[in-house]
């Protein structure tokens, strides 16, 4: 396997919408100085999402994944990216060092999505996604088993302990890779 040239790891924070990805990414970026790579922002900036034809869900964008990868290729090569996205299997495993799948209690997720103003259909689709552990399975299928960790995000103390755990992991990664 070729040596890793990046000096900081690339970490995916994934999970069903509403579980707490962005909250984790922001806290982690602030604590570590790594870059919060918000894929929603990349899609907007480069205009690489097409509106879905679903009249119930006009705001959801279908993203051109090849173009997305072109847009972030340099960032991934550089390293130190905290990738915030509700899918993970499009990122090349050779570029990824850790995948955190954020989860939360179903009722809590329902309340968060309701508060976000999701319509009933979109809400139910996302609830099914969480209940069926779709993102966890996607992560396990795409990456080595020992790269994938599951984290709960139900209270502020969960965020603190998850972020602390990832910070510790980053330090170990740097030591192990002589960085
Ligand atoms: P996502 O990026 O996965 O869509 P988010 O970070 O925007 O989710 O969080 C959705 C909402 O839930 C937001 O109002 C913050 C809240 N939230 C998430 N995780 C939480 C936690 N562990 N404790 C308290 N509130 C949390």
From TrEMBL:
<keyword id="KW-0539">Nucleus</keyword>
<comment type="similarity">
    <text>Belongs to the adenylate kinase family. AK6 subfamily.</text>
</comment>
<comment type="function">
    <text>Broad-specificity nucleoside monophosphate (NMP) kinase that catalyzes the reversible transfer of the terminal phosphate group between nucleoside triphosphates and monophosphates. Has also ATPase activity. Involved in the late cytoplasmic maturation steps of the 40S ribosomal particles, specifically 18S rRNA maturation. While NMP activity is not required for ribosome maturation, ATPase activity is. Associates transiently with small ribosomal subunit protein uS11. ATP hydrolysis breaks the interaction with uS11.</text>
</comment>
<feature type="binding site">
    <location>
        <position position="23"/>
    </location>
    <ligand>
        <name>ATP</name>
    </ligand>
</feature>
<dbReference type="GO" id="GO:0016887">
    <property type="term" value="F:ATP hydrolysis activity"/>
</dbReference>
<keyword id="KW-0547">Nucleotide-binding</keyword>
<feature type="binding site">
    <location>
        <position position="20"/>
    </location>
    <ligand>
        <name>ATP</name>
    </ligand>
</feature>
<dbReference type="Pfam" id="PF13238">
    <property type="entry name" value="AAA_18"/>
</dbReference>
<dbReference type="GO" id="GO:0005737">
    <property type="term" value="C:cytoplasm"/>
</dbReference>
<keyword id="KW-0418">Kinase</keyword>
<dbReference type="GO" id="GO:0005634">
    <property type="term" value="C:nucleus"/>
</dbReference>
<keyword id="KW-0698">rRNA processing</keyword>
<feature type="binding site">
    <location>
        <position position="116"/>
    </location>
    <ligand>
        <name>ATP</name>
    </ligand>
</feature>
<dbReference type="InterPro" id="IPR020618">
    <property type="entry name" value="Adenyl_kinase_AK6"/>
</dbReference>
<feature type="binding site">
    <location>
        <position position="18"/>
    </location>
    <ligand>
        <name>ATP</name>
    </ligand>
</feature>
<feature type="binding site">
    <location>
        <position position="22"/>
    </location>
    <ligand>
        <name>ATP</name>
    </ligand>
</feature>
<keyword id="KW-0690">Ribosome biogenesis</keyword>
<comment type="subunit">
    <text>Interacts with small ribosomal subunit protein uS11. Not a structural component of 43S pre-ribosomes, but transiently interacts with them by binding to uS11.</text>
</comment>
<feature type="binding site">
    <location>
        <position position="21"/>
    </location>
    <ligand>
        <name>ATP</name>
    </ligand>
</feature>
<keyword id="KW-0067">ATP-binding</keyword>
<feature type="region of interest" description="LID">
    <location>
        <begin position="115"/>
        <end position="125"/>
    </location>
</feature>
<dbReference type="GO" id="GO:0004017">
    <property type="term" value="F:AMP kinase activity"/>
</dbReference>
<dbReference type="GO" id="GO:0005524">
    <property type="term" value="F:ATP binding"/>
</dbReference>
<keyword id="KW-0963">Cytoplasm</keyword>
<protein>
    <recommendedName>
        <fullName>Adenylate kinase isoenzyme 6 homolog</fullName>
        <ecNumber>2.7.4.3</ecNumber>
    </recommendedName>
</protein>
<dbReference type="GO" id="GO:0042274">
    <property type="term" value="P:ribosomal small subunit biogenesis"/>
</dbReference>
<dbReference type="InterPro" id="IPR027417">
    <property type="entry name" value="P-loop_NTPase"/>
</dbReference>
<keyword id="KW-0808">Transferase</keyword>
<dbReference type="GO" id="GO:0006364">
    <property type="term" value="P:rRNA processing"/>
</dbReference>
């Amino acid at each position: 396997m070729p040596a890793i040239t990046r000096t900081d790891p690339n970490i995916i924070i994934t999970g069903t919408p509403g579980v707490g990805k962005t909250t984790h990414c922001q806290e982690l970026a602030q604590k570590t100085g790594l870059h919060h790579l918000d894929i929603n922002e990349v899609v907007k900036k480069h205009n690489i999402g097409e509106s879905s034809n679903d009249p119930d869900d006009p705001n959801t964008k279908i993203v051109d994944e090849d173009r997305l990868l072109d847009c972030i290729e340099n960032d991934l090569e550089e390293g130190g990216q905290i990738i915030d996205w509700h899918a993970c299997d499009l990122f090349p495993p050779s570029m990824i060092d850790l995948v955190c799948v954020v989860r939360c209690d179903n009722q809590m997720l329902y309340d968060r999505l309701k508060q976000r103003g999701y319509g009933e259909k979109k809400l139910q689709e996302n609830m099914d996604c969480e209940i069926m552990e779709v993102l966890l399975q996607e992560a396990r299928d795409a990456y080595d088993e020992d790269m994938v960790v599951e984290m709960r995000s139900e209270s502020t103390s969960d965020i603190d302990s998850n972020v602390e755990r990832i910070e510790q992991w980053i330090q170990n990664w740097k030591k192990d890779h002589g960085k």
